């Protein structure tokens, strides 16, 4: 039994070592990624229900490495988030997206900020410095944050969001419905829109629960005077169901995959999809 126990402990230790080593390699790779030019952004259109007008694009980070090939953000963002690397990556994303935005006739860019970025000291001043440096109107920048970023320290977050919104930034609450927002507290936050998490859109045609959740998020959003963006829209049937539910905006493969900056500029100029 003792040997057995030791065996188990050793297996456990080895796998721990392995995952720590893997994490270190990712971290090492990420810390070099900017100067090696391995990062890029893909832009996915956000369309209004009326006429499928392209009103903005979400910037999505891509990392292509010699060592591991393309690595998905769901894999490396959490690792960056656990170290200070997230700040470097985030600054790169913001600078790059503000640069690309200038080529679009009027659309906004929607940028993801992790909880750690949002909670950094002087987040407001930091963002403001970027838009001033690039000469971009804050109203053309949408800040996407998740529930996790704002519900931990709700009063401080509410103050930060209020100041950002005063300056003209748009605020979107991302992955809405997956976190632990209290519907009561949501009033405290200065928001422009809710983004319904893709998992609910995906389940809409199959489970009554998902459809019910989508409907209640849309109702809540409208009652609070917010826009409601449905993300992960993949089919015409979903578009119709979301139209009935009353969603104001759509985003997903049905309209467009995330695309490169040149394609995004063309789409921004054409302005209407389908
Ligand atoms: P997210 O913010 O929820 O982004 C939406 C994700 O859904 C993107 O995955 C997008 O490519 C994908 N998607 C869009 N439409 C569809 C669809 O119709 N069907 C399906 N199946 N998927 C769709 P992606 O690009 O892999 O990004 C994953 C997550 O990584 C993002 O989720 C976001 O949380 C994070 N992320 C991406 N870029 C950044 C960034 O610059 N900064 C931070 N902090 N996080 C980022
Ligand atoms: Ca997002
Ligand atoms: Ca999302
Ligand atoms: Ca997500």
Kindly describe this structure.
The protein is an alpha/beta fold and 274 residues long. The chain has helices at 2-33, 73-81, 85-101, 115-118, 123-134, 147-151, 154-166, 198-203, 208-223, 236-245, 261-270; strands at residues 39-48, 54-65, 69-71, 108-112, 141-146, 170-176, 193-196, 227-230, 249-250. It is built from 11 helices and 9 strands.
Tally of separate helices:
11
| Sequence of secondary-structure elements | HEEEHHEHHEHHEEHHEHEH
Strand count, sense and barrel status of the largest sheet are:
8 strands, mixed, barrel
**Helix proportion:** 40-55%
What do the pLDDT scores average to?
93
Instruction: Give Rg in angstroms.
Output: 20 Å
Q: What percent of residues are in strands?
A: 15-25%
Structural class: alpha/beta
The spatial strand order of the largest sheet comes to 1-2-4-5-6-7-8-9
Runs in which pLDDT lies below 50 for 5 or more consecutive residues are none
- Ligand names: ligand C2E, calcium ion
How far the N terminus sits from the C terminus, by CA atoms, comes to: 67 Å
Kindly state the number of beta strands: 9
Shape: globular
Domain EAL: 23-272
Protein name: EAL domain-containing protein
Organism: Sphingomonas oligophenolica
Secondary structure elements and their pairing?
Elements: H1 2-33, E1 39-48, E2 54-65, E3 69-71, H2 73-81, H3 85-101, E4 108-112, H4 115-118, H5 123-134, E5 141-146, H6 147-151, H7 154-166, E6 170-176, E7 193-196, H8 198-203, H9 208-223, E8 227-230, H10 236-245, E9 249-250, H11 261-270
Parallel strand pairs: 2-4, 4-5, 5-6, 6-7, 7-8, 8-9
Antiparallel strand pairs: 1-2, 1-9, 2-3
Helix pairs in contact: 2-3, 3-5
Bound molecules: ligand C2E and calcium ion (CA) (3 copies).
Organism: Sphingomonas oligophenolica
Domain EAL: 23-272
Protein name: EAL domain-containing protein
